[in-house]
Amino acid sequence: MNIVWDFDGTILPLTPHDSEQSLLSCIVKEMHPHVLNLKGLLTRAIIYADMKGWIGHYFKPLYLWAAKGTKEDIIERVTEELAGRISMEDRNTLKALQRAGHKQVLISCGTENLSRAVLHKSGILKCFSDVVANRFIFKDHVISGIEYRTLKPADKLNAVISMGFNPEDTIVVGDGPTDIPLLNWSVFPVVIRRNNNEKAGSSGCRYSIISEIADIIPYVKGIYRGNLKFTQNP
Ligand SMILES: [Mg+2]
Q1: Could you read off the pLDDT of 40-85 as tens digits, one per residue?
Q2: 183 C-alpha to center of ligand 1: Å?
Q3: Which residues touch 7 (CB under 8 Å, ≥6 apart)?
Q4: How far, in Å, is the centroid of ligand 1 from the Cα of 163?
Q5: For the whole model, what pTM was predicted?
Q6: CATH class entry, domain 2-13+87-229
Q7: What's the 175 CA to ligand 1 centre distance in angstroms?
Q8: Ligand 1 center to residue 52 CA distance, Å?
Q9: Looking at the DSSP assignment, which residues form a beta bridge with residue 229?
Q10: In this structure, are residues 172 and 190 in contact, taking their beta carbons and an 8 Å threshold?
Q11: pLDDT tens-digit map of 93-123
């Protein structure tokens, strides 16, 4: 099977900050504390509005405005902390899926520099044959722009289709609105709801619900037992 993973909220638990909000939060923390800082106040407002889901994909230009001019080594510091959120059990699950021959890709509307570095520091980057998200552009080791590859939810679906994946042999795992086009496309849509006491099962709609990454192992086994017609490759 192919397995398409979302990053923020799916592979990376929220604290409640996602990886981009964590980067902005770190930028604010590292600003000079004794200066009345308008940019700091506005950046906090951007983080809050994004956490509330008020600004959708309009977040990205604001995010870039706030991050622009920041030295690239901040990514090392932020992703070190973010990698600590991924449990050993989750890492082992992703490794086991790779060993079993499943092709895993990570497609995110977030920032590739963050997701890639987190996966690397967690020792699981090699579990993914591709990582597709938006990329920072650096000039003289400073963030100067962003290359949009997956700005909108539909861009994630287009990325998966361009990989040659088919809905019949692709599991999609996501947690939020940016995953909806992909979830609706796949024959095997899975939504992760962390801190959910319900066991894996149906949400009442077509999506299967899991409460932790490890639940994907019995889910895959269930596909092989019950829907062999869908399994064209391992
Ligand atoms: Mg997400």
Answers
A1: 999 999 999 999 999 988 999 999 999 999 999 999 999 999 999 9
A2: 12
A3: 19, 106, 108, 110, 115, 118, 133
A4: 20
A5: 0.91
A6: alpha beta
A7: 5
A8: 14
A9: none
A10: yes
A11: 999 999 999 999 999 999 999 999 999 999 9
